[in-house]
Design brief:
Blueprint (H helix, E strand, L loop, with lengths): L6 H4 L10 H17 L10 H5 L12 H6 L80 E2 L5 E2 L6 E2 L2 E2 L21 H10 L19 H4 L4 H18 L8 H4 L1 H7 L1 H15 L7 H17 L6 H20 L5 H16 L7 H5 L3 H15 L4 H4 L5 H7 L2 E5 L19 E5 L12 H27 L5 H28 L4 H5 L4 H25 L8 H17 L9 H10 L3 H17 L4 H15 L9 H7 L8
Antiparallel strand pairs: 1-2, 3-4, 5-6
Main location: nucleus
Keywords: Nucleus
GO cellular component, one term: nucleus
Length: 652
């Protein structure tokens, strides 16, 4: 998300050295005339922030008074540049809050929608007029608030989200006559200023080795095709070209659905049959077809035969972990709410056996490869999003996952010094989750730090339930004074944990290395928007589960107003597969009829054309919540409804 950069107005007029005495006199004369007429003119030589806000700048350098009071960087441009030359001017390390040359507005197809724009010579779009407050005729996303400071890659490199607008889920294409940068600037990695700066900042240091070196252009090989009939070959090709691309939100360079599963499929037929079954789920349009189940059964039987009476090598163990990981994904994609968790439990048991009960030993026994770390990251993903985890707690603590995945909690006042792994020190300020891992998860992408916080919210909720149960049991066995002290201690501890989580959600930044694989700044914008979707969703989730703040409260509705437009941007994009959790949180938090109609339309839209049938499940949960909590006065939890239906639901 980038603000509009008006090149002609903001840059061409800033060549101070070439200003003539005549130009200065004309400016002074114009200022005097404006003052006489009572016109508040904006400075032509002011800072970028004042220009963006259409405010008069006092032109005090190095920082104007407005920026000083707002405690924001005051940036100036003293370079004369034309629109065509812009792409060659700014180096990747330019310390500017560059703003994307597009305004994007969220507007529905409602025929009553009203959008007024200024003429083509105008540089900014006027605010939308909402004729009907109860419909989504128009909705402007203002990202200049406390809820949308998306990311600070380093202290020196800052991407600041600003006003975004979309038309019918697509980026608004401006006429070539409008004063915007050429589109190809943001469509090629070569001219992606932000991506290039990010890559330079992150560097190319790699420590974890890959177990397989795969050339996807030469797949499928004769070895993997041996024994397959024509239909099975087509299914395998569909997995390679479609399924693996649909479930991954990152480019192929970090797509383990290709780089790990395909080499394993060459060595183990069980993996091969599981992948064919996965493709069957995506291609299966009839309820009665049993193609996916047929190949799942075949994969399990083949695995038992392959591993029978055999000393397992590390690759064999990797294959077993991968098989159960794939089967979980296949069944979840098929909309299963029972059997997937059986495979997940088997996988959990196998991981405990391999690590002697301590997850951190996995790298010791299986090696510190990228593939091993990703499989653990994959397990984290499903563990955090499982409804069962809200009853029992996650299979492994977030601290254990973070030890494997090189994730840390740090404090700003330590100047970047890494603190104890995921220990929530409530005495420190500005704590955040930092994902330093070089392994990029194609399921979680840059959002992985936020999944860790969602997992911590889940475990905190379980602790809260246990604490309340303990207090109830001790009420009559203690004196009233003792009971008061116990309650005070318990709720103080819980409140401190809540504040800690709230601060972490506010400060945590995306996983930088995942962003480095993207191909353009437009992709970067989408992924940062996805991170904002999860940050807002996690904030709502924290407040409704731990603080038990009902959806009807202004606090929740304020977050919802920011969240809905961001979700609308993501639907239809390359990262829409990640929307199960945010859509569920948004649906449960919606109390107005217009919000509910909008969410129902979007989830139904995802259910109708997106092959992951889990979206149908969450629509059922959302509609049941609306029946139970019509006015949004209560905190109805999705996992309680899932248990009511007898579902072991996973929001993956």
């Amino acid at each position: 998300m980038f603000a509009t950069l008006d090149l002609e107005k903001d840059m061409s007029i800033l060549d101070v050295e070439n200003n003539t005495t005549q130009a200065i006199d004309e400016k002074s004369s114009l200022d005097r005339e404006n003052k006489r007429l009572g016109i508040k003119s904006r400075s032509r030589d002011g800072c970028i922030e004042c220009k963006r806000k259409k405010k008069k700048c006092d032109e005090t350098r190095p920082s104007c008074q407005r920026c000083l009071k707002s405690n924001i960087p005051c940036v100036w441009r003293d370079v004369k540049v034309s629109k065509k030359r812009f792409k060659n001017i700014l180096p990747p390390t330019e310390k500017l809050s560059i703003q994307k040359p597009k305004s994007i507005n969220f507007i529905s197809n409602n025929p009553n929608s009203s959008l007024k724009k200024e003429s083509k010579n105008s540089k900014l779009v006027k605010e939308l007029e909402i004729k009907d407050a109860l419909t989504f005729d128009s909705l402007e996303i203002n990202h200049n608030n406390n809820h949308t400071d998306l990311i600070k890659f380093t202290d020196d490199y800052f991407i600041k989200p600003v006003d975004l607008v979309i038309h019918d889920n697509k980026l608004d294409e401006k006429d070539s006559t409008d004063d915007y940068l050429d589109e190809d600037v943001f469509n090629t990695a070569k001219n992606s200023f932000f991506l290039e700066a990010l890559r330079e900042n992150v560097g190319n240091g790699f420590t974890n080795l890959s177990l397989f070196d795969i050339n996807l252009n030469k797949f499928p090989s004769q070895q993997i095709l041996q024994g397959l009939d024509k239909e099975e070959i087509l299914y395998l090709d569909y997995y390679r070209t479609c399924v693996s691309q649909t479930v991954s939100i990152l480019p192929n360079e970090s797509n383990f659905f290709l780089s790990l599963y395909l080499p394993l499929a060459e060595k183990h037929k069980s993996i091969l049959y599981a992948l064919i079954g996965w493709a069957g789920v995506f291609l299966d349009t009839s309820i009665d077809s049993n193609i996916p189940l047929q190949y799942i059964k075949k994969a399990i039987e083949t695995s038992e035969y392959e591993m029978k009476s055999k000393t397992l090598s590390n690759v064999d163990k990797l294959s077993i972990i991968s098989l159960h990981t794939i089967l979980c994904a296949v069944l979840i994609c098929a909309g299963d709410v029972r059997d997937w968790y059986k495979h997940f439990q088997m996988l959990h048991k196998f991981l405990l056996e391999l690590s002697n009960g301590e997850l951190k030993n996995i790298k010791k026994y299986l090696g510190d490869s990228k593939e091993i770390k990703w499989l653990i990251s994959n397990f984290l993903y499903h563990d955090v999003l499982a409804s069962v985890s809200h009853i029992k707690g996650t299979c492994f603590k977030m601290q254990e996952y973070c030890q494997i995945l090189d994730m840390n909690i740090s404090c700003d006042n330590t100047q970047g010094k890494v603190e104890k792994i995921i220990e929530f020190n409530t005495n420190e300020k500005d704590i955040e989750v930092i994902d330093n891992d070089i392994v990029c998860d194609p399921l979680q992408g840059c959002v992985r730090p936020m999944y860790v916080l969602i997992g911590e919210i889940t475990n905190t909720f379980v602790k809260l339930k246990n604490m309340e149960k303990m207090l109830k049991e001790n009420e009559h066995s203690l004196t009233y004074e003792e009971f008061i002290k116990l309650r005070n201690k318990s709720y103080t501890e819980m409140d401190n944990k809540y504040k800690s989580l709230e601060k972490q959600i506010e400060n945590t930044r995306p996983h930088k290395r995942s962003l480095c694989y993207l191909k353009s700044d437009k992709d970067l914008e989408i992924h940062l928007t996805l991170f904002e979707v999860f940050r807002l969703s996690a904030s709502i989730y924290l407040k409704t589960t731990i603080k038990k703040i009902p959806p009807v409260s202004p606090e929740i509705q304020h977050l919802l107003v920011d969240l809905i437009p961001c979700i609308n941007i993501i639907i239809g994009s390359s990262v829409q597969a990640s929307l199960c959790f945010p859509l569920l949180v948004t649906g449960i938090s919606s109390i107005s009829q217009s919000d509910r109609s909008f969410i129902k339309e979007k989830v139904s839209q995802m259910s109708s054309y997106f092959p992951v049938k889990n979206f149908k499940r969450i629509l059922v949960i959302i509609e049941e919540t609306w029946k139970i909590n019509r006015n949004g006065l209560d905190c109805t939890q999705w996992f309680d409804i899932s248990s009511k239906f007898g579902w072991d639901l996973c929001l993956a």
